[in-house]
Specification:
Mean pLDDT: 87
Low-confidence stretches: 1-25, 657-662
Shape: globular
Distance between the termini: 32 Å
Structural class: alpha+beta
Length: 761
C-alpha cells in the first residue's frame, strides 16, 4: 500500500477502552496529488481555503448497549470545501487489534471493502504523512492499527454520506460498564460541525442504576428499571473530547459504584462515587414532601418579571402530588400567605392557590427577613422533606436589612432542616446574601439573568425535587483494617452536604483517599421518613496503571476550587486557601477570575511555578469577592456554583475562531458576566500547556521554574529522526501535545528522565 498524504474525516468508528488515548475517527487519504495536504482546521477567514479541505455537515451516532455488547451505527455527511476533486481512501484507526466485530462500511449506500492493517503497517502510513506534509496531527494515532478502504472520488462541493456499522464488547470494571466513543478528532474539519447527534439506548437483564457521562452534559430518560435513553445534541461546534458513558446495574433500592484513580503511590488518590435509587414502575406511590414558594412581589418585579414569576408558581403547583403539603408566600414590605397554615394538596386547594397567584401584582419594598422567618415558622413536621423555593430580584430594603442578622435569624428559625432553594433575578440582588442563606440552610442558589426566563429556572428545579427517594443522605468510607487513630482514610468529599436523592437522578460524589485497598461505602438516609442504611464494597487502587480514570482527579479539583472560592467568599480571605487555589488552577488549567493571570503570555514561568508574583495577583483579584451586587456579584457566585456542582471534567465542545483556539480554555470576565476565550492556555488530553511568547510549556515542566528548566533542556528539531524517536518513546499525552504543535510554535515537554526536558523547535 502506498504511503499517501491525507486529510481527516471525523467518522468515529473504533472504540477501545484501555489506557492510551482512543481514536476511531476516519481519515481521508488523498491519492490524486503530490502536494502536501495538511489536515483541515477551522478557519477564521472563510475566503482563505486550501484546495484540499472538507467540512463535516452532520454526524449522527446511534448505539444500542445490550448488557456488555455495543451495536453502533455512525452516519456522517461531509462536503469537499476545496477547489479540486479529491480521490480518497477512508481509513479508521484501531486502538488494539480485534476490538471490533462485524464491521461494514458504506459510502452513499455502496459498500466498500476494508482491510485490517496491524500497528506496524499503520505506523508507516501515519509517520509518512507527518514527514511528507510536515503536519504533526497524526501523531495522535501512532501505535494503533487501522482499517482502510479502497478509493472513491469527492468532487468540489460534493457531499458524501459515510455509514459504519460495528459491534463491540465493552469494558466492565466491577459493575460499571464503560462506553467510549471517540469524538475529539472531529476538530480536523474546515468549519465547525453543523450538527452532532448522539443517541444511546441501554438495555440490561438487571436493574440499571447510575447512568453518568464525565465528558458531556447528556439528557437521560428512564422509561423502565432495565432501560435508559441517553442523548446529546450540539450545533455549529467542534468536539474537544471523546464521548464517554458509564452505567451500572444492581438489584435493590439503591445501587452504588466507585471509581478510583491514583497516579503516584506517594500521593493521595481520587475517587468518584455514583449512587442511584431504583426506578419504580409507573403508578407506584411517591414519597410525600412539603413545598413552600416564597416570591418577591416588590415594585421592581412589575411587568414581565411578575408574569414570569406567576407562571413559575403555577408550574410548581401543577407538579405537586396528591397528599403533599404546600403554601405560597409573597412579600414586598409586608408578607402575605395563600393560607395561614400549610395545605394538603388536592384538586380543591390547587384551584384555590391558582386563583391566589392570578391575583398577584407588584409594588412596595423588599422585606426578606420577615418573608423567610414567617415561612419557616409554618414548618414543624420532619417526617417528610421540606423545601422552600425563595425568589427575589433585589436587596433587603424593608424590615431587617443587615446581611449578617438576616442570615442568623433564618438559620435560627429553620428548626426542621428545610432546604432553602434561592433564585436571584437580575443583577440588583445581594448574591452573597443569597449564597449565605442557601449554604446555611441545606440548599443552593441559582441566578436568573435579565434576558432569561424565571419560569424556566424554577420549573427545572421543581421537576427535579418532585420525587425525593432518600433524604438527609450521608456518605462514609470505612476500612476494617484501619484503626480510628490513623484518621479518616477519605477526605474532602464533595459535595460536602449530599442532601437528598431524587428519582431518576444519581449522586455524583468525589473525594480524596490516602489509604488504598478494600473499603466499604456506607450510605445512610431516610426513606419514607424511616432511617435506612446501605453498605457497598469499594476498591481504592494503590496505583493506576494508566490514565483511563484521570478525569476523576480533575473533577475533584473543579469542585475543590469551588469550595475554596466559597470559603473565601463567605468567611473572608485566607492566604493558604489562595495558595491552594492557584496551585489547583495551574495544575489542571481551570481558569477562574482570580487566576486569570495564568493566561498572560508575557508573564514569566515563575507565575506558573507558584511564585510570589502570581500569588499577589490572585490575592488582589480575590478582593473582588467583596462585590455582592451587580454583574460582578452575580457572575462570581454563579461561577462558584457551577464549580461546586460540576458533573463533567473537561470542556466537550467549543466554537472556534474567537481567539481561544481549540483547547476550550476560557476565563470569566466578571465585569461583563461573560466567558472570554484565551489563547495562551491549552488542555490537551490530561495535560495543560501554557504559552510564553511562542513557546508552549507543559505544566510538568513549567512548575519547575525557568532556571531549573534551563539546566535540563535538550533541543530537538521538528520532523528530524530524533523527533520521531521521541514520539515513539513518549507517553500518550506527550504525543498528543506534539500533535497540536503549529508552524512557528515551539513546545517544551518532559522526558522519561527527571534530569532532562525536550524543547521541540
Amino acid at each position: 500500500m502506498r504511503r499517501l498524504p491525507t486529510t481527516h474525516l471525523g467518522i468515529l468508528a473504533m472504540v477501545a477502552l484501555w489506557a492510551a488515548p482512543v481514536w476511531g475517527q476516519g481519515l481521508l487519504i488523498v491519492v490524486n496529488t503530490k502536494d502536501a495536504v495538511p489536515l483541515p482546521r477551522p478557519v477564521v477567514r472563510p475566503e482563505v481555503r486550501p484546495p484540499m479541505a472538507y467540512r463535516i455537515k452532520e454526524l449522527a451516532v446511534n448505539a444500542r448497549l445490550l448488557d456488555q455488547v455495543a451495536r453502533v451505527q455512525v452516519s456522517q455527511s461531509f462536503v469537499n470545501t476545496g477547489s479540486q476533486q479529491m480521490e480518497v481512501s477512508f481509513v479508521f484507526p484501531l486502538p488494539y487489534d480485534g476490538a471490533i466485530d462485524q464491521m461494514t462500511f458504506l459510502v452513499d449506500g455502496k459498500e466498500y471493502p476494508a482491510k485490517l492493517l496491524k500497528a506496524d503497517e499503520a505506523r508507516k502510513i501515519y509517520e509518512g504523512y507527518v514527514r511528507r506534509n510536515r503536519d504533526p496531527a497524526l501523531l495522535e494515532w501512532i501505535g494503533t492499527g487501522m482499517f482502510q478502504t479502497s478509493v472513491f472520488p469527492v468532487p468540489p462541493g460534493a457531499e458524501r454520506k459515510v455509514t459504519l456499522h460495528y459491534n463491540q464488547l465493552l469494558r466492565k470494571d466491577h459493575q460499571l460498564t464503560d462506553f467510549l466513543f471517540p469524538l475529539g478528532t472531529a476538530k480536523y474539519t474546515s468549519d465547525p460541525v453543523e450538527k452532532l447527534q448522539i443517541e444511546v439506548s441501554i438495555e440490561s437483564t438487571a436493574e440499571i442504576k447510575s447512568v453518568y457521562s464525565p465528558t458531556h452534559a447528556v439528557e437521560v430518560k428512564r422509561p423502565a428499571a432495565d432501560r435508559a435513553q441517553v442523548s446529546f445534541t450540539a450545533k455549529e461546534q467542534i468536539p474537544l473530547s471523546d464521548f464517554r458513558l458509564f452505567y451500572d446495574v444492581a438489584p435493590g433500592k439503591l445501587g452504588a459504584s466507585v471509581i478510583s484513580y491514583r497516579p503516584d503511590v506517594g500521593d493521595d488518590g481520587y475517587l468518584l462515587l455514583l449512587a442511584s435509587p431504583e426506578i419504580k414502575p409507573a403508578g407506584a406511590e411517591k414519597a410525600r414532601k412539603t413545598v413552600v414558594c416564597v416570591f418577591d412581589r416588590s415594585g421592581s418585579m412589575s411587568g414581565k418579571k411578575i408574569e414570569q414569576a406567576k407562571e413559575a408558581m403555577k408550574f410548581v403547583l401543577n407538579n405537586l402530588r396528591e397528599g403533599d403539603l404546600f403554601n405560597i408566600v409573597v412579600y414586598d414590605s409586608e408578607v402575605e400567605a395563600f393560607q395561614p397554615e400549610l395545605q394538603r394538596y388536592n384538586d380543591k386547594t390547587r384551584e384555590q392557590a391558582m386563583g391566589f397567584v392570578e391575583g398577584l401584582y407588584a409594588g412596595g419594598s423588599t422585606n426578606i427577613h420577615a418573608a423567610l422567618t414567617k415561612t419557616l415558622a409554618m414548618l414543624n413536621d420532619t417526617s417528610q422533606p421540606n423545601y422552600v423555593i425563595f425568589m427575589t430580584d433585589g436587596l433587603p430594603t424593608s424590615g431587617e436589612t443587615s446581611e449578617a442578622k438576616i442570615v442568623e435569624a433564618v438559620a435560627a428559625a429553620n428548626e426542621v432542616h428545610a432546604r432553602l432553594l434561592s433564585f436571584g433575578v437580575g443583577y440588583d440582588v445581594n448574591s452573597r446574601l443569597l449564597d449565605r442563606l442557601s449554604r446555611g440552610n441545606f440548599g443552593r442558589s441559582e441566578y436568573v439573568r435579565p434576558d432569561e426566563n424565571i419560569e424556566t429556572h424554577i420549573a427545572r428545579l421543581a421537576g427535579r425535587i418532585s420525587s425525593p427517594v432518600m433524604t438527609d443522605v450521608a456518605v462514609k468510607f470505612e476500612f476494617d483494617s484501619m484503626p480510628a487513630a490513623e484518621g479518616d482514610p477519605v477526605n474532602r468529599l464533595y459535595p460536602r452536604q449530599v442532601g437528598d436523592l431524587f428519582e431518576g437522578e444519581q449522586l455524583v460524589v468525589v473525594g480524596r483517599y490516602k489509604k488504598a485497598g478494600v473499603a466499604k461505602v456506607k450510605i445512610a438516609g431516610k426513606v419514607g421518613g424511616a432511617e435506612q442504611k446501605f453498605d457497598f464494597p469499594a476498591t481504592l487502587i494503590e496505583k493506576s496503571p494508566d490514565q483511563s480514570y484521570a478525569f476523576v482527579e480533575k473533577l475533584w479539583a473543579m469542585r475543590r476550587i469551588g469550595e475554596i472560592i466559597d470559603e473565601l467568599d463567605l468567611r473572608g480571605k485566607n492566604d493558604e486557601l489562595v495558595k491552594e487555589l492557584v496551585e489547583l488552577s495551574t495544575k489542571h488549567g481551570i481558569l477562574t477570575p482570580y487566576t486569570s493571570f495564568l493566561s498572560d503570555d508575557t508573564a514569566s514561568l515563575g507565575d506558573l511555578a507558584g511564585g510570589d508574583a502570581g500569588l499577589k495577583k490572585a490575592d488582589a483579584m480575590v478582593e473582588r469577592l467583596r462585590e455582592a451586587e451587580g454583574k460582578p456579584g452575580v457572575a462570581q457566585r454563579d461561577e462558584k456554583r457551577q464549580l461546586l456542582e460540576a458533573q463533567q471534567a473537561l470542556p466537550a465542545m467549543t466554537v472556534p475562531g474567537r481567539g481561544g483556539g481549540l483547547s476550550g480554555a476560557s476565563v470569566l470576565d466578571i465585569d461583563k458576566d461573560a466567558r472570554v476565550p484565551v489563547d495562551a492556555v491549552q488542555v490537551v488530553g490530561n495535560s495543560v500547556l501554557y504559552r510564553r511568547g511562542n513557546v508552549w510549556y507543559s505544566y510538568d515542566v513549567a512548575k519547575q521554574g525557568q532556571a531549573e528548566v534551563a539546566k535540563k533542556v535538550k533541543v530537538i528539531e521538528r520532523f528530524s529522526d530524533e523527533y520521531f524517536k521521541l514520539v515513539e518513546q513518549a507517553s500518550p499525552d506527550t504525543a498528543r501535545i506534539l500533535s497540536q504543535q503549529k508552524p512557528g510554535e515551539e513546545v517544551v515537554v518532559p522526558s522519561a528522565s527527571p534530569s532532562e526536558v525536550y524543547h521541540v523547535k
